[in-house]
Amino acid sequence: MINHLVRTRRSSEDFPQREHLAQKIAEIAVDPVEVPADTEEMVINRVIDNAAVSAASVIRRPVTSARRQAQAHPVAPGATVFGIDGTYSPEWAAWANGVAVRELDFHDTFLAAEYSHPGDNIPALVAVGQHVGAGGADLIRGLATAYEVQIDLVRGMCLHEHKIDHVAHLGPSVAAGLGTMLGLDEETIYQAVGQALHLTTATRQSRKGLISSWKAYAPAHAGKIAVEAVDRAMRGEGAPAPIWEGEDGVIAWLLGGPDAEYTIALPGQGEPKRAILDSYTKEHSAEYQSQAPIDLARRMREKIADFDAIESIVLHTSHHTHVVIGTGSGDPQKFDPSASRETLDHSVMYIFAVALQDGTWDHEASYAPERANRPDTIDLWRKISTVEDPEWTRRYHSADPNEKAFGAKAVITLLDGEVITDELAVADAHPLGARPFGREQYVAKFRAMAEGVVEPAEQDRFLSAAAQLASIPAGGLAALNTRVRPVVLDKAPQTPKGLF
User: Which residues belong to any copy of the MmgE/PrpD C-terminal domain (predicted)?
Assistant: First the structure.
């Protein structure tokens, strides 16, 4: 990897394009390096994972609204929308499928200086690949680039510190991945990356306080913007430059300011793109820092005979967990049983209470209004708090994958004074966890989420196509669409008509 120092430059400085971060990203996007076998394997796993969570969310209201928006834009050749027949404008297909993937907060994650769900790259690349007649090998190459770019940016450039949403790294990664998949030249990719970044910088209010359905839409919007940016760049249209380093650019005014410096490590020429292997998926439908606490709660419940005998529970954890999904956020909504699902899945206090009581986690039942409003759950929920532990924060930010952790230590104090303590560094499904996810687990997750939603024969067809992704010929990527049973789609809610 090559470390690139990125900082603000005055307009009067001699700062040639070859030194711009957007140019460095364009260079790795055009590098014809072979995709390693383990990277290809993981790309396939994540395509399956996205289909699984899309099946689980297909008739939820935000997904239904996005799908109906896409259906208002039919195009030939076009791209497919999850669950249905027909072809639609690729940017709208990317939009609809991106919402389906993100709605349940149930797909892959990478956490470092910033947060990310790099599987958000997949809907946009698949949609454009279908529209232009790309093949499976093209898609794999594009996704290897997209994951690499987003994860490398996440490692080196913190956005949330400045209240900028993490999708600001997604716009450039989608643009770069599309550039690789389509075989575009450096200049076109450079301009597309700049446009995509400029148009996807937004505040983190989408993940603060009472969280709305926009949390699911935000990554889909970034993907849609990146598709449109690539289209414009292919037509010769330019971008603000230098987009990160400019005197009035992203670093100077949205991030650390004119004196800030960031180190972004990107693969050198001929170096394989392997970043996807450092990311991890979710076994449970909840914010990633809740994954290990859910597993910890399931383990600790065996030591508690009477939940009414609990006086308090304190979760000692990282700064991020404490301030984003813990009591350090200062969000009273995280204790509100009438809060939105999006809010509850960002409340580790709620999640730990339900997992402790139930010993399981379900993407629907665990968030149901009747579940959140159970008096005994509310009572337990309000006894839970979080505190930052510097050691958990250090491990969260560790560059050593064998040490990096997203867990917590739980201290449960009973009314009689007994204290029960346990801790878990990584979720069971993490590569270093008790039950790491491999192909078998990804397939099982898909089968579980698709049960009753997708016919068994259609499940088999999709899984066979995904497993042979590299062999899908040009024009064959429609095989990655999974059709949903009409009787299921008939249950989708009626939504008000919009403009389209």
Answer: 284-469
Give a yes or no: residue 144 inside a domain: yes
Residues 348 and 211 in one domain: no
At 499, phi and psi to the nearest 5? -80, -30
Here the tokens at position 144 are 């290897």
CA 400 to chain centre: 22
- What residues pair up with 292 in beta bridges, in sequence order? none
- Domain end (from 372, 398, 424): 424
Q: Are 95 and 436 in contact (CB under 8 A)?
A: no
Which amino acid is present at 103? Answer: E
In the chain, the number of structural domains is 2
CA proximity to 105, closest of 294, 275, 291:
291
CA distance 390 to 61: 40
Please tell me whether residues 340 and 216 are part of one structural domain. Answer: no
Beta strands in 163-212 (DSSP E): none
- 238's CB contacts (< 8 A; 6+ apart) are 191, 194
Angle between helices 121-132 and 214-234 (to 10 degrees): 40
d(CA 63, CA 98): 9
Q: Which domain holds residue 21?
A: 2-278
| Cα 483 to the center of its chain, rounded Å | 23
pTM: 0.92
String of b and e for 114-136 (b: at least 16 CB within 10 Å)? Answer: bbbbbbbbbbbbbbbbbbbebbb
CB count within 10 Å of CB 232 equals 15
What value does the mean pLDDT take over residues 178-206? 95
Q: Which of 278, 308, 323 is the last residue of a domain?
A: 278
Q: How confident is the model at residue 205 (pLDDT cuts 50, 70, 90)?
A: confident
- The pLDDT tens digits for 350-387 are 999 999 999 999 999 999 999 999 999 999 999 999 99
pLDDT digit string (tens) for 33-80?
A: 999 999 999 999 999 999 999 999 999 999 999 999 999 999 999 999
Which residues make beta-bridge pairs with 422? 410
Is the CB of residue 355 less than 8 Å from the CB of residue 419?
no
Tell me the one-letter amino acid at 429: A
